[in-house]
Specification:
Blueprint: E1 2-6, H1 10-21, E2 25-29, H2 33-40, E3 45-46, H3 50-55, E4 62-65, H4 71-83, E5 89-92, H5 101-109, E6 114-121, H6 126-129, E7 132-136, H7 139-152, E8 158-162, H8 166-193, H9 202-209, H10 218-227, H11 245-256, H12 261-272, H13 279-292
Parallel strand pairs: 1-2, 1-4, 2-3, 4-5, 5-6, 7-8
Antiparallel strand pairs: 6-7
Helix pairs in contact: 8-11, 8-12, 9-10
């Protein structure tokens, strides 16, 4: 099929390349001329504007939007609505909030344009390994896009999970689970790192756990790479950002009355990573001093971490 790709960042560019490697044609657009030139060098057709991109696609167009969630995605889809025709389909493959899917679909439906929300997982490794795709939309819209889904996903890695919104909902929960898994690995390796009496080689342990262990996973493989000698791990500061999905998952758990202590705690731990001198911890120290006369530290010990980056 011939498909439009809007957004040529780390994900969009690699997805375009994988689609072309599977025999599909890609018409690509990005605000960056450099990004357009890079995919053109790998065989993509490029467009200087969204209107140019739409004009290069055959009837019953499919345009995949792979730009940051929020205003960039909304603005792009609004622009495409004015350019596309009845029977066409827009795919949102970013990490948009699932609550935005239904209003977007309704707006596009006013012109007879279909909408598919495609939760996409695989990161920068998706080019080689494929992308797990969790897709929401009508059967008709999904069927039109399915050749692209099958090309992007590894065998067994794609499913039409439900109506509009279901794809991004499942991806949201997927990322919430990811938060918990990552936190568990981080805490386990922290405990082993503090067992100085054993002189444990954390890279070695991460490596052997990849084979036969019940905790083996792709995330563990990435941990093994991160801990490898020469990886630069010692230069990384423990400031962990969150991109929204963990917060949304926690909100859903609260709204639906579902206990989710692991996911919510892992989210709060990310918040804590940004506070090296929080008021809460200072107050805890002061309270211990007040009721028990416990000593307080008024100057950070040598070797303690510096202030968090903004």
């Amino acid at each position: 099929m011939r498909i439009g790709m809007v957004g040529l960042g780390k994900m969009g560019a690699n997805m375009s390349e994988r689609l072309m490697g599977k025999g599909h044609e890609v018409v690509a657009f990005d605000l960056s001329a450099e990004a357009r030139a890079a995919v053109a060098a790998k065989g993509a057709h490029t467009a200087d504007t969204l209107a140019d991109l739409v004009a290069q696609l055959p009837a019953r167009r499919v345009v995949w939007v792979m730009v940051p969630a929020g205003e960039p995605t909304t603005t792009t889809i609004d622009a495409l609505k004015t350019l596309m025709s009845a029977g066409d389909v827009v795919i949102d493959g970013g990490n948009s909030n699932y609550n935005e899917a239904a209003p977007t679909a309704t707006s596009l439906a006013d012109k007879g344009i279909g909408f598919v929300d495609a939760g996409t997982s695989g990161g920068v490794w998706g080019l080689a390994n494929g992308y797990c795709l969790m897709v929401g939309g009508t059967p008709e819209s999904v069927a039109l896009c399915e050749p692209a889904f099958l090309a992007l996903a590894p065998e067994g890695g794609y499913a039409h999970v439900g109506p509009v919104g279901a794809g991004h909902f499942v991806k949201m929960v997927h990322n919430g689970i990811e938060y918990g898994l990552m936190q568990a690995y981080a805490e386990g390796f922290e405990i082993m790192g503090q067992a100085h009496e054993f002189g444990l080689d954390l890279h070695q342990i991460a490596s052997i756990w990849r084979y036969g262990s019940v905790v083996r996973s792709w995330l563990l493989e990435l941990a093994e790479r991160a801990l490898a000698p020469g990886s630069g791990f010692e230069k990384i500061e423990g400031y962990v950002v969150d991109s929204g999905e963990g917060r949304w998952t926690a909100h859903e758990a609260i709204a639906r009355g579902v206990p989710a202590p692991v996911i919510t705690t892992s989210l709060f731990q990310r918040f804590a990573s940004r506070q090296t001198d929080s008021l809460a911890n200072r107050l805890l120290a002061a309270l211990r001093n007040q009721f028990g006369g416990h000593a307080v530290v008024t100057e950070a010990p040598a070797g303690s971490p510096g202030p968090a980056k903004p």
